[in-house]
Structures are given as structure tokens and as C-alpha cells.
Amino acid sequence: MKVLLTAFFVLSMLTSLTHAQPSPSAALDRLHLAVTTSDRPAAAAILAADVQIFESGFVERSRDEYLAQHFAADAGFAKGVTRKVVRRTEQVAGTMALVMEETETAGRYEGKPVKLIGTETAVLRLEGGNWQIVHIHWSSRKPKT
Prior knowledge:
- Helices cover about 40% and strands about 45% of the residues.
- By secondary structure, it is an alpha+beta fold.
- A hairpin with a 2-residue loop joins strand 3 and strand 4.
């Protein structure tokens, strides 16, 4: 009986530690908030140094490259539009996670109306108790009329 109680206690602790971790989806939400608010340090904290970001056939091969080359444009776009997550799935396997989203984005950018259907795939790695994004693939299209 003592062994069973000890095993139950250990399993309970492991379960509570697992639940104490912020979710991968929450990390992705924090990245989108950082982009929307032009918060470069917050974005840097969520992106792994070796992140690879794929979008429209282009690749940024590190956090520094993304922050230096594309972050400002993404932030400018995000300020004028509203992004709505229509569907999200999350899968976690140990220290790796996959988050897939379908989104609708609408608003104005550079004086023009924007209406897009988007997909996003993010791979995250748990490091030091925090989820860091190691890969993102963004894709979007105009809605069918």
C-alpha cells in the first residue's frame, strides 16, 4: 500500500508539473500579441534563436534575421487588421509540440481593404520550462467569392 501511495504521489506531481507549463498555443498567442504591439523583446523571448520562418516561398533562418528583416513589416500589417483564429489543434509529445491554426484576417493595410483566409503551422520546443517556437509556416489566400 505504501508503494501505491508513493507511486500515486509521484504521478500526481508529474501531472501537476506538466499542467504548470504554459501551453504551446499560449506561446503562439504571445508571439502574435508581440507582433501586433511591435514588442520586439517579447517576440525575441518566444522565438528560438534557430527558428526558421517560412512565408510565401521566403525563409528567415534565425530569430535575428526575422527581427531585423521582416518583424517591422509584420507589425505594421498586424496593427491595421484583426486576426481571428477559426480552428486550432495542438499536439504535444514530450518536449515538442505542434500547433496548427486556420484564421480569418480583415481590416486595412496601406489604405486598402484586407480580407484573408490563413493557415499557420508552428513547431515548438520546451526549454527551461517555456515553449519556444522553432518553426513557423504561414500561408494565406483571398476568400472565395
